[in-house]
């Protein structure tokens, strides 16, 4: 291998590929970077006036070049030597690292035809790595109902009490030491792989921010799953899309965050008709995938009561995010205005605001936005008590609570 690091050499080093495996990798790669290299395989058998059967290969619907199959790889590795061909069949076993780690896949067009007549393809993840050196992220949509979430905030911006922080620290510890716990400490027989936690509490109390911060702390991407796009009316589509999601997450070490989980899992009912039965089956499949997921899965809900004890037993922790009390609210207010270029007017009394108005952290951020919009268009650019009170009034009105006088 060259000493200089390239996307190709990095993949070879990482996977420790031997020459036959490298041939499969290059063969699947060529249609994307130098398709003409496979043109000699178009040569025709003059005796039969057709392509050589032993070359395998497929014709694309728009691609003009030769698309290799498993048969193509076997011919290049072993020619017509039957014993060699049989020995190389191991390269296409589902448990071989090239397939198990989702480097390559065999894309079958017709299930009744020989398996090695399937197209030999690079997965999107490794195609991205080999061509750009980057990380593949599937486009958001019904077929992949998840989007990456990040945050510029830090743990200091999240006001949590001690026991809650201890629970979150357990998740971080698991992410950093799970292999040692499972293998070196011999806990694989007793513990299921992965870590599952349910975050529950009122809106705006920091559940999504916490998921993002856990990603920063563990250096793991966090993907929020849109549960409204999970259940499909088409038979088999839900399972197919979820399988793709969990496979990506396992391969690339993502944290999966299922927000508003009660919108789906709280709907489990007795099957009164075929639609109920199908929906319950899909929800049960998702729950089983979450339970079997060897990574970190976080579910968020506004109501703990929506989940029964049988559901709760699937999780390693149930973490409650309560509404902040007066002292916590004061810390949130102070964090909003710390190290900012604008000033607070003399009539702003943050301790009084924290004491008199029960707001979540998310609501306080919304008040900050409202007050800044008022302050930036006037001179001096200062935030006044009335700006904050108007913002508070808006938040209370959104939540169906009272409105302050004069608003």
Describe the structure.
The chain has helices at residues 7-15, 19-33, 70-78, 82-87, 97-100, 124-132, 162-184, 207-218, 237-252, 262-265, 274-292, 309-312, 326-337, 350-356, 361-375, 385-398; strands at 44-45, 50-51, 58-59, 66-67, 104-107, 119-122, 146-149, 195-200, 222-225, 255-258, 296-301, 317-320, 343-344, 382-383. The protein is an alpha/beta fold and 407 residues long. The chain has three domains: 7-132, no CATH class; 146-320, 3-Layer(aba) Sandwich (Rossmann fold); 326-398, Helicase, Ruva Protein, domain 3, CATH 1.10.8. The termini are far apart.
Brief account:
The chain has 407 residues and is an alpha/beta fold.
> Which overall shape is indicated by the principal axes computed on the Cα atoms?
elongated
Order of helices and strands: HHEEEEHHHEEHEHEHEHEHHEHEHEHHEH
Number of helices in the DSSP assignment = 16
Chain-averaged pLDDT: 89
**Structural class, judged by helices and strands?**
alpha/beta
CATH superfamily of the largest domain: P-loop containing nucleotide triphosphate hydrolases
Lateral arrangement of strands in the main beta sheet: 7-9-10-11-8-12
Unreliable runs, pLDDT <50, ≥5 residues?
none
Major pleated sheet: 6 strands, mixed
Q: Percent helix among the residues?
A: 40-55%
Gyration radius from CA atoms, angstroms? 28 Å
The CATH architecture name of the largest domain reads 3-Layer(aba) Sandwich
- The end-to-end distance, rounded to whole angstroms, is 71 Å
The number of domains is 3
At the first level of CATH, the class of the largest domain is: Alpha Beta
Count of distinct strands: 14
Beta-strand percentage range: 5-15%
What's the multimeric state? Answer: single chain
């Amino acid at each position: 291998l060259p000493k200089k690091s390239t996307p190709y050499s990095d993949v070879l080093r990482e996977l420790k590929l031997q020459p036959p495996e490298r041939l499969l990798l290059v063969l699947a790669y060529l249609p994307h970077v130098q398709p003409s290299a496979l043109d000699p395989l178009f040569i025709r058998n003059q005796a039969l006036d057709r392509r050589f059967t032993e070359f395998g290969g497929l014709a694309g619907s728009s691609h003009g070049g030769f698309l290799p199959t498993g048969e193509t790889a076997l011919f290049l590795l072993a020619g017509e030597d039957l014993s060699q061909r049989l020995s190389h069949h191991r390269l296409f076993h589902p448990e071989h690292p090239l397939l198990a780690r989702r480097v390559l896949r065999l894309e079958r067009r017709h299930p009744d035809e020989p398996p090695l007549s399937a197209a030999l393809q690079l997965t999107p993840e490794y195609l991205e790595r080999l061509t750009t050196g980057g990380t593949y992220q599937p486009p958001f949509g019904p077929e992949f109902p998840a989007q990456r979430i990040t945050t510029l905030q830090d743990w200091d911006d999240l006001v949590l009490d001690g026991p809650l922080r201890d629970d979150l620290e357990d998740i971080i510890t698991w992410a950093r030491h799970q292999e040692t716990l499972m293998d070196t400490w011999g806990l694989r027989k007793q513990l299921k792989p992965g870590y599952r936690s349910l975050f529950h509490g009122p809106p705006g109390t920091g559940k999504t921010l916490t998921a993002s911060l856990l990603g920063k702390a563990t250096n793991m991407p966090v993907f929020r799953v849109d549960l409204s796009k999970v259940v499909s009316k088409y038979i088999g589509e839900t399972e197919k899309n979820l399988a793709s999601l969990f496979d990506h997450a396992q391969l690339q070490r993502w944290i999966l965050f299922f927000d508003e989980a009660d919108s789906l899992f709280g709907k489990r009912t007795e099957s009164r008709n075929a639609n109920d039965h199908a929906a319950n089956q899909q929800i049960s499949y998702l729950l089983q995938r979450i339970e079997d997921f060897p990574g970190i899965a976080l579910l968020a809900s506004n109501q703990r009561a929506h989940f029964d004890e049988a559901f709760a037993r699937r999780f390693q922790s149930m973490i409650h995010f309560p509404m902040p009390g007066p002292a916590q609210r004061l810390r949130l207010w102070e964090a909003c205005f710390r190290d900012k270029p604008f000033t607070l007017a003399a009539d702003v009394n943050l301790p009084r605001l924290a004491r008199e108005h029960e707001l979540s952290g998310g609501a306080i951020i919304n008040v900050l936005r409202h007050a800044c919009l008022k302050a930036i268009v006037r001179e001096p650019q200062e935030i006044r008590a009335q700006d904050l009170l108007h913002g508070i009034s808006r938040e209370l009105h959104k939540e169906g609570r009272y409105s302050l006088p004069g608003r």
